[in-house]
Design brief:
By secondary structure, the protein is of the alpha+beta class. It is built from 3 helices and 7 strands; from the N terminus they run H-E-E-E-E-E-E-E-H-H.
Length: 194
């Protein structure tokens, strides 16, 4: 059980390290991706009721050619008021510019298409699902949460290793005591021989 637990903890730490390095390597103006998936929090109500404000969405990287009308996509906005920030809206039409798709989008809460079409090179991916985390989001964005998220697995691994080393030391002492008893027994038997 200890080995299985240690293996799981090490796997979790390696995965957390991979995610951390991946996030750190991503340029500040780009959305980080882990195994082709990105996690983002929705800041506005433009996609309500489909996606409530404050929800965390999961977006899968997808080729522009695979997008269809009706898909909800996340893209770097061409709108000057939120230029280059991630935006998530529904595709209402697809046209082409030099053979590359261009998407017309609209928020589900709106009645008009967005005024700026989205070129294929601004696509981040397709919305897959969302979940609401409410206050949990504030907690997860705090430095204390990040510190604990790293500290707890490290402490668990250290504790498991400490217990393993302690057990090995106890076994070694028991073997040493057994060897000493065996040696003492041999000496006594030699002393009794005529």
């Amino acid at each position: 059980m200890n080995r299985i637990f240690s293996f799981i903890l090490i796997a979790v730490l390696l995965f957390a390290g991979y995610v951390f390095l991946n996030v750190m390597r991503t340029p500040k103006d780009k959305v980080p991706s882990v195994f082709g998936y990105s996690f983002m929090q929705v800041a506005t109500g433009s996609m309500e009721p489909t996606i409530p404000t404050g929800s965390v969405i999961i977006v899968q990287q997808t080729e522009a050619a695979q997008i269809k009308v009706g898909d909800v996509i996340t893209f770097y906005s061409p709108d000057p008021t939120i230029k280059d920030l991630p935006n998530t809206h529904r595709v209402t039409a697809i046209s082409a510019d030099s053979g590359a798709p261009v998407f017309t989008t609209r928020g589900d809460a709106g009645f008009e298409d967005d005024p700026y079409p989205v070129p294929a090179d601004r696509l981040i991916g397709v919305y897959k699902l969302h979940f609401s985390i409410g206050k949990l989001s504030e907690i997860m964005h705090s430095k204390a949460f990040f510190f604990l998220a790293m500290l707890i697995p490290i402490c668990a691994v250290i504790s498991v290793e400490f217990l393993r080393v302690k057990k090995l030391a106890a076994e070694r002492e028991a073997r040493k005591a057994d060897n000493q008893k065996a040696e003492t027994g041999k000496e006594e038997s030699h002393e009794q021989d005529p």
